[in-house]
Design brief:
Layout (H helix, E strand, L loop, with lengths): L1 E3 L32 E13 L7 E6 L8 E4 L3 E9 L8 E3 L20 E7 L6 E6 L6 H6 L4 E6 L12 E8 L12 H6 L5 E4 L6 E6 L1 E9 L6 E6 L2 E7 L2 E9 L1 E4 L4 E8 L3 E8 L17 E11 L21 E14 L2 E8 L11 E3 L4 E8 L5 E5 L5 E7 L2 E3 L9 E4 L3 E8 L4 E7 L2 H5 L3 E6 L1
Parallel strand pairs: 2-5, 4-9, 10-13, 12-20, 21-24, 23-31
Antiparallel strand pairs: 1-22, 2-3, 5-7, 6-8, 8-9, 10-11, 13-18, 14-17, 14-19, 15-16, 15-18, 19-20, 21-22, 24-29, 25-28, 25-30, 26-27, 26-29, 30-31
The structure holds CU-O-CU linkage and copper (II) ion.
């Protein structure tokens, strides 16, 4: 709960340069001397970014860059990453979003790393764990702010044998959003930010506004899309090119699925193959999506160009086709237990302003409370019921799940494909049913991934025994 005065949303007055060549994320160097080990250090601390001509923006960064360095490991590897927290006076953690790590290596809020101290996270990447993961801080009460100030990075686990042709490349596109005051600083949250989650004025791709990429016509490209924004829903289409979905949060699908437009809610990922079959310009742009907005200042969702691709006249060398089958995905068996989680918002005016609650089953997060006890290795049916007026993207730590159905107003729909996911949007008024199994014991968080909602209490703990 938090009491705040109503405040106007500051409007973006700063103009950011557009059209620069898309930069690749800097790769985190592996310091291990032998194979099978990924060893490195991530240092979080203050840095200065230059988003707009002549303006210095104080941010937080991992190893000096935001988004953080790209981590690339291979399934079967052991990972040992030392986290050096050099953020002034703030505890932090590194949470390995979506990754099958032991509970005591998960960087959850119960396990803070004090300012000025180091800790090493170690875990093994099991066979079959190839996927598009990410990392970000998760300290109690500070997650949302540390992420919007710049702390988030991509962690790709590659398979030992990849069915996607190497000629397609493998390009990470990480979306963040930014709000800049006229002096270049990052303004504090307003009441609107706390209610809706903080939505910035500019959507950035790998830290750049509407960067460009040039490809020959006939080319196919593999993209990993990451929504690393605190609260912005991205409904996207690729004008002038054809999108095929090949993977989700937890890796490849069984078979490619053609897509017209896609919805990437906060924290979700998708892997795409995009075919550039005609010369000219192709652009990845946003479409309108009504995620439920409270109060004034609903940002314009539609018509933002995130990436411009120049498809040249030169024809690409012929590339192998996308295989029809990508990998098998086993179905999780019949659930032994079923649980229901009801998401609600409460808003009331009192003397000090608006009092808000973001609740799961009527309760706000309490670090000292266990909400649910589960058995390791047992399949459970989780029913996430959104009785609130906004969409809430649901995320659970420690495992990947399979969505089995969505229900809205009595209508049940099945997902178009079986997939491993760790984050799923639960639209307002909707119920999502999913199957999950936790294999490793210990406390695990589940929460709304609008990070301001997580911070205001929309989170619980399942203790796996
Ligand atoms: Cu991406 Cu609990 O977080
Ligand atoms: Cu939420």
């Amino acid at each position: 709960h938090a009491g705040h005065d109503m405040g106007a949303v500051p409007q973006g007055t700063v103009v950011l340069p557009e059209g620069e060549v898309l930069r690749e994320l800097p790769l985190l160097a592996n310091e291990a001397s032998g194979p099978g080990l990924f060893k490195a250090t991530l240092t979080a601390g203050s840095a200065t970014a230059r988003f707009a001509e002549g303006l210095d923006t104080p941010i937080l960064a991992y190893n000096g860059t935001s988004p953080g360095p790209l981590i690339e490991a291979v399934e079967g590897d052991r990972v040992e990453i030392t986290f050096a927290n050099r953020i002034d006076n703030e505890a932090s953690t590194i949470h390995w979003h979506g990754m099958p790590v032991p509970a005591d290596q998960d960087g959850n809020p119960m396990d803070p790393v004090a300012a000025g101290t180091d800790r090493t996270y170690s875990f093994d990447l099991p066979e079959g764990s190839a996927g598009s993961y990410w990392y970000h801080p998760h300290p109690h009460g500070k997650t949302a702010e540390q992420v919007y100030r710049g702390l988030a990075g991509v962690f790709v686990v590659k398979p030992k044998a990849d069915p996607i042709p190497a000629a397609y490349g493998d390009t990470v596109l990480v979306f963040t959003d930014l709000r800049l005051a006229a002096d270049g600083t990052l303004p504090d949250n307003t009441m609107t930010d706390l209610m809706n989650g903080r939505v910035g004025d500019h959507v950035l791709v790998n830290g750049q506004k509407n960067p460009t990429l040039t490809v020959p016509f006939g080319a196919k490209r593999r993209f990993r899309l990451y929504n690393a924004t605190n609260a912005r829903f991205l409904r996207l289409s690729f004008d002038g090119a054809a999108m095929t979905i090949i993977g989700t949060d937890g890796g490849l699908l069984e078979a490619p699925v053609a897509a017209g437009d896609i919805l990437l809610s906060p924290a979700e990922r998708l892997e795409l193959v995009v075919s550039f079959d005609k010369p000219g310009a192709a652009s990845l742009a946003t479409l309108d999506y009504d995620r439920g907005w409270m109060g004034p200042g609903r940002p314009a969702d539609a018509g933002l160009t995130l990436l411009t691709v120049n498809v040249s006249q030169t024809e690409a060398d012929p590339v192998p086709p996308l295989p029809d089958r990508l990998r098998p995905i086993a179905q999780l068996g019949a659930p032994a237990v079923s649980r229901r989680f009801v998401f609600t918002e409460t808003m009331a005016m009192n003397a000090s302003g608006m009092e808000m609650g973001f609740l799961i089953n009527g309760a706000a997060f309490d670090m000292k409370r266990i909400d649910v006890v589960a058995k390791a290795g047992q399949v459970e049916l989780w029913e996430i019921v959104n009785e609130a007026d906004m969409d809430h993207p649901f995320h659970v730590h420690g495992t990947q799940f399979q969505v089995i159905e969505h229900e809205r107003g009595g209508n049940i729909s099945k997902p178009a494909y079986r997939a491993w996911k760790d984050t799923v949007n639960v639209a307002r008024g909707e119920t999502v049913r999913l199957l999950l199994r936790q294999d490793r014991p210990g406390p695990r968080m589940y929460h709304c991934h609008i990070l301001e909602h997580e911070q205001l209490g929309m989170m619980g703990v399942v203790d796996v025994q």
